[in-house]
Amino acid sequence: MISAGRDRVSVVLDFDVGPGRYRIARTLRRSGVQMVRLEELEESGSFKNLADQVRAATDRVAQILGLGAPAFMQSVVLPQGEFARFLKAQPRDRRGMLRTLLRLDV
Fold it and tell me: Labelling 57: which of 4, 20, 65, 88 has CA 20 to 30 A away?
């Protein structure tokens, strides 16, 4: 995912949860070193650091969202190739797919 001739890729995401506004910035270097910074916007308009280590930031984001990575993958991201099948399926078949995907009774 790192462009040719570049030594790193970076992404910054601002998101709101309830009244809170957060920013997470991640950088991956070609060497494999990862950097992360999770911040929360304070009433003063400045950002307060919440985490600056990958594991701590991942855990804190899961806490903020109330949704860990496995639950996110189950409930938000359809497995590759399943989305087209889901769109083309009959309503009764979609219900079964959702039941399997989300491990719920629908």
Answer: 4
Q: What's the pTM?
A: 0.65
* DSSP letter for each residue of 39-67: EEE-TTS-EEEEE-SHHHHHHHHHHHHT-
Please report, for the chain, the start and end positions of each structural domain, with discontinuous segments joined by +.
Answer: 1-66, 68-106
pLDDT tens, position by position, 55-68: 999 899 989 988 77
Integer CA distances (angstroms), 43 to 30, 38, 46, in order: 37, 17, 7
Q: Which residues pair with 48 in a beta bridge?
A: 40
State the DSSP string of 20-46: EEEEEEEEEETTS-EEEEEEEE-TTS-
Return the residue matching tokens 């639950």. 71
The answer to whether the CB of 38 falls within 8 A of the CB of 49 is: yes
